[in-house]
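Review form for a predicted model. The reviewer records the input and the model, then writes brief findings.
Reviewer: anonymous (R2)
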Amino acid sequence: MRKIIDRKTAYRAVVLLIALVAVLSIWPGRLWTEVMETSAGGNRIEEDKAVNVECFYSQKFVARYNRLSSVDIYISKVEKGRYFDVTVCDLGGRELIKTLVDTGDKVIPGYVRATLEYNVEVGKEYILYVRGCRSKVDINFETVPDNPEYVGSMYEHCFFSEGSSITEVPGMHIAAGYNYRIPMSKKSSLAVIAVIAAITALLYGLIGLYFSKRPGRNSIITVERCVKFVANPIATVFYLALMIMVFPLKVFDTRAVDIVFYEIGLIVAAGITFYAINHKVVKSEVGISFIDGIDAGNRVRYFLVMLSMAIGMWYSCCCMNDDYDTFRHLSERKMAISFIVMMLLTFSAKEAFNALNLVWLIASGIGGVYYYKQNLFPETEPDFVEKNTAIKYAVIIFMLGGILAINLIKLFAGYIHEKLNKNIRVSEERASISRFGIFVYVFFVVLIVMRNGSWWGVALAATFSCLYLRGLVWKGRKDWLSILSGGLMLNFGISFVYCLMFRCFAGYVSGRYGFLFHTQTVTAEYLTVMGAVAAVLLAVKIVALPKNYGVKDLIKTAWKEFILFGLISVYAIFTVSRTAYVSLFICAFCVLMCYKKRFGKILIAMIVSVVVCFSPVFTLQRIIPAMVGNPVLMINDDTDPFVRGGAAWGSPNYMCVERFANLFASKILGLDVGTYDYPHDIYNYDPETGKPYLDEYGDPVDDIEKNESFGMSAPETDNMLASMQFTNAEAMMLLTATDGDENEAEEAESEEGSTLLDKLDSISNNRITIYRTYLKEMNLTGHAEQPILPDGMVAYHAHNTYLQVAYDRGVPAGIMFVMFVFGSIVFGLKFFKNNKEKQPLALVPFVIAIGFMVAGMSESVFEFSYPMTPALMLSIFPLMQNNK
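Model under review:
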């Protein structure tokens, strides 16, 4: 950034960079699109068909392109109300995307556009539903053309007092057009790229001509100043555009509280961004600015090590989201490859590139190709593509793992030779295995022997044993904690950008933000690790400052750590998860206790960082994914269909201030805040009271007080609000509460101890029942299958990592696991006390082990592919050695 260049070179570089970004956005990014309007064809029949609460229609259609932009429905008349509902479902009836169309400003009769912006699978059949929403509208049909390639059967759905019927309507389909968003054509793309190239060449030449005629103006400029010159106007335009969209345009919400909150969030975010662009860089030897303390020759290689570590953690997160064993195996193997590459990057070029490694690579490559071809699954096999890919990854692991093993054997052979010859390098550059390290290796053996058909313990032991053995004969081990911290924070940074682009902040159904994951508990575990490291990074920066430092000094030296801890903590708050709150609080408290002399200042910095970051993170997470319009949904995501597309930027079904406040107060503080009621169709309901203006048939409500209000039946009869939709879990909790009220007398007569346990069981989501089941089945050798719960269901896991290991591997292995966790804590604290002066990040292993211990009490967190496990195993690297 401090490199000096002349202005002509700087201006030309900026022009070339902007041109490159523009070209990449066209190809391969293909961000510039156009809408292709398609029609199934046929002649429109001018016979009105009513759509209301008692009658609606469904139409099967086949997707032609990848993104369904919109559907145009012919509306001949709006008799009552003003909304109608358009929903796309799969053949199983699951709602994929849903929108309410307001006909108030549309030209009727005519085609009315329902904007969806939803990704579909080409060639797959879907069902389009057209229904009323407290309204009565008339639609038309079209005759089926001779070649109905893209439309299928149409059905009429009718409801009567005595029952319901679904009738196929032969020879007809709904008068509708299906519009797809497609990238610009190759011809158009080439034309635009040619124009960009021509403009770039012209500007490039004009810049040269200008400075050739005015050489005195071709002064010296730093790269840093050039970046500021370009970045400042871009950031200004970005934030001003968002602020105007928030108000006065009211694109994202119409409520005053949300508008004010979003504007504040954008102002704070803009302030942080402009400071990041324009601040004067301060060199520091501690914290996340560790790169200044590393030899220049190792910086690129260490960054690649960190990147490999970050990618390995990414695939660990992916594995948690995979709902099918085949896909889990793919993620696990990609994770293993990433960690092997990470270890290979620790070798010097001389160690990595030699004849022996080349011979192995050729021989294993030939053998791997032969093995792959011999074991290919045929196309008739289910999931044959994924299974063949898993074989391919296994071959890659074998090849790379062989190179790693060869190099480790060579290093240890040299180590033994030096030891026998009493070479002084053995004392200076080598380390010995610590007592804790010996115990860990024994624990690995137990995991392998007591595997009971599970192979993740073998993968874990093999992968991290190689890492620890490599550490004994690697001079770079002194930089490991810097590499670890950088790798984990790089992973969070990648995850943050990904979520900011593709993971929408939905208010319903559960409203709890899952970050990368489909469950908030796994999110809590992940953020506990990241938050623990971020807390250490912030603390060591504060500790390194002079005693009488001011706020200005803190901001100058620790602003990145300040923002980083705030980001992670805010996302933890978004989970509305007790596990996240407790685990992160204990980790932060341990950091504070380890730096008692700066306890107050570190605590204040942590609190202020969360307060400062809350509004901008909330605002950007609410706004950006909605604008990107390409939400990534996990298999088990419960996000409601109203916000699964890219059209509804202002949908009230995204998270808002009031909804989050109610959710937090209810789930965390235990307050009875009532039901959050805000309508999707504001012309059908009073936004303040939630009372309907119209009944289900679209007729005005005479006595609004006696008529229906928001209730649990609303989603079944109306299509106005997803706020009242419930997940299965929430519905079961509600039914349980109802049953509890009806059986209150019986519970009063039950024994006091039993009632207390029942209450604890209910509060803990049946964990007491699960714990009892696992404890009853404990033995010395472990189990290959999970136990059966009293209700006959198979327990997926124990929701307690200590019980889980003891159940899977046997009680002795469980005892060793407890010793391993507490040993990580004890030796981590000892390592910190012995090395805090020479290694500022020496506290990292201790706080990660603390977070692992706490999270493990309520969740199963110990497995090769669970994010907390590789984080813990990577963190104990320095505890495995005795360094002189």
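Findings: DSSP finds 27 helices and 17 strands in the chain.
Further findings: The first helix runs from residue 7 to 26.
Recommendation: see findings above.
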